[in-house]
């Protein structure tokens, strides 16, 4: 009997020690995880990026996105110094020293006018706004059966056209912009969105390239942001967007990023797709298109993944280089990675940082 009691006490002591050790280990792991959380504020990250990018300004969506980000940063912070670089970079186009619309015409370059539109809105620059309005008209197709010119049929077009046309449509309240954007986005989705909700890059690039899905998400997001009430296809566009967002949830990696080819487990985690999808989700939560409780943890993990790839001096890691559509999966899986200064990555992460700040503001 005494031996049984002793054994019982020993088992109880062992269980208690095991519980204590387990609790201690859990606490240690939680403390270690907490210590790894990057606490940089979104606006502090935005300030670093706005000061640096674009390093090679030109008429492209990359520069336009960076200029617009700096202009928004000035408005959000009430710090006018962030106006200086976009003013300096864009002035030669207003003066005519550099052509705003030049051959070879491409949506990726014409989309640079989003920066000029934002210059008009945030800095009241009338000549810049006029350039943006001219570019929007220039993009429109002259044929009633088509929507926009100079596209490649890739998901890239969805963002490049929608970002500018949606802004201009909201500003002018001219109904044909909403009609064109709505028809374009639905037509591209019918051709490029898979049954599972992801997008292929193009008919000639039938793979779920990461940034290509980001471009699709942003094109849908920009249309809903600026022209939701004016879109006859609003319900269809929202459904396309929500299907894509749903499909992305199980594909987020453990560190919060998404991969350069979304559905390929051996593809590398990539910065720009993570920043773009973070932006699209954060905007959706903020404006009520996505369920806050479900998507906020996903967004927060993605932000940590972004921060892990952004150095204090604004240099970056894991940025996929420029990518056209190609038929083989190997092409997408082996795209070169940029580590260091990169205008594309800097502009896209600047956009994400501003969206994270907006999401955290009670008035938004």
**How much helix is in the residues?**
55-70%
Sheet having the most strands: 2 strands, antiparallel
Count every beta strand, where a strand is a DSSP E run of 2 or more residues.
4
Count helical runs. Answer: 15
Approximate strand percentage: under 5%
- The SSE order reads HHHHHHHHHHHEEHHEHEH
What coarse outline follows from CA principal-axis ratios? globular
Give the domain tally.
1
Looking at the overall shape, the CATH architecture is Alpha/alpha barrel
| pLDDT averaged over residues | 91
* Coarse structural class: mainly alpha
Trace the largest sheet across and list its strands: 1-2
What's the CATH topology name? Glycosyltransferase
**How large is the radius of gyration?**
23 Å
Distance between the termini: 70 Å
CATH class: Mainly Alpha
């Amino acid at each position: 009997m005494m031996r049984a009691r002793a054994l019982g006490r020993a088992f109880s002591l062992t269980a208690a020690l095991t519980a204590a050790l387990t609790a201690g280990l859990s606490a240690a792991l939680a403390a270690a995880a907490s210590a790894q959380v990057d606490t940089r504020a979104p606006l502090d990250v935005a300030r670093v990026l706005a000061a640096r990018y674009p390093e090679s300004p030109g008429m492209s969506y990359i520069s336009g996105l960076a200029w617009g980000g700096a202009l928004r940063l000035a408005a959000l912070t009430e710090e006018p110094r962030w106006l200086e670089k976009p003013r300096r970079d864009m002035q030669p186009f207003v003066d005519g020293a550099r052509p705003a619309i030049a051959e070879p015409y491409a949506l990726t370059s014409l989309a640079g006018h989003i920066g000029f539109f934002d210059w008009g809105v945030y800095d009241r620059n009338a000549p810049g706004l006029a350039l943006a309005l001219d570019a929007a008209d220039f993009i429109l197709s002259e044929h009633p059966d088509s929507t926009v010119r100079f596209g490649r049929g890739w998901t890239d077009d969805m963002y490049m056209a929608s970002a500018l046309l949606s802004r201009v449509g909201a500003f002018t309240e001219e109904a044909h912009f909403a009609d064109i954007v709505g028809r374009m986005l639905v037509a591209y989705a019918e051709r490029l969105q898979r049954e599972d909700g992801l997008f292929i890059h193009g008919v000639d690039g039938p793979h779920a390239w990461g940034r290509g899905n980001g471009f699709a998400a942003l094109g849908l997001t920009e249309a809903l942001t600026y022209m939701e009430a004016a879109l006859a296809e609003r319900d269809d566009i929202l459904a396309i967007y929500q299907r894509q967002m749903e499909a992305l949830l199980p594909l987020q990696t453990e560190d919060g990023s998404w991969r350069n080819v979304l559905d390929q487990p051996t593809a590398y985690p990539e910065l720009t797709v993570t920043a773009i999808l973070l932006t699209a989700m954060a905007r959706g939560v903020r404006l009520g298109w996505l369920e806050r409780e479900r998507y906020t943890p996903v967004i927060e993990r993605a932000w940590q993944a972004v921060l892990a790839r952004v150095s204090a001096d604004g240099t970056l890691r894991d940025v996929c280089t420029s990518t056209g559509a190609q038929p083989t999966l190997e092409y997408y899986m082996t795209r070169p990675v940029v580590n260091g200064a990169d205008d594309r990555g800097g502009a896209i992460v600047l956009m994400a940082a501003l969206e994270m700040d907006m999401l955290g503001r009670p008035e938004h």
